[in-house]
Amino acid sequence: MAKPTLWKDEYTLLCQACGYVLEGLDLDTQCPECGKPIEESLAKDRPGTPWQRKASIFSMIKTWYLVLRHPKRTIDEMRFDEGDGISFAAITPLLAMGIFSLVLLPIPFVSKYISLFGAVVGFGMVSVMYWLLGFTYSAIASSRIRFAAKRRGYRVDREVSWALAGYASTALILIPLAVGTVIVVGFFLGLAIDRGYLDRDHWLSIIYRILAWNALLFCLPVSLLAFEVFPYLGLRRCKYANRIRPQESDPSSTARP
Question: What is the DSSP letter of 197?
Answer without folding.
Answer: S
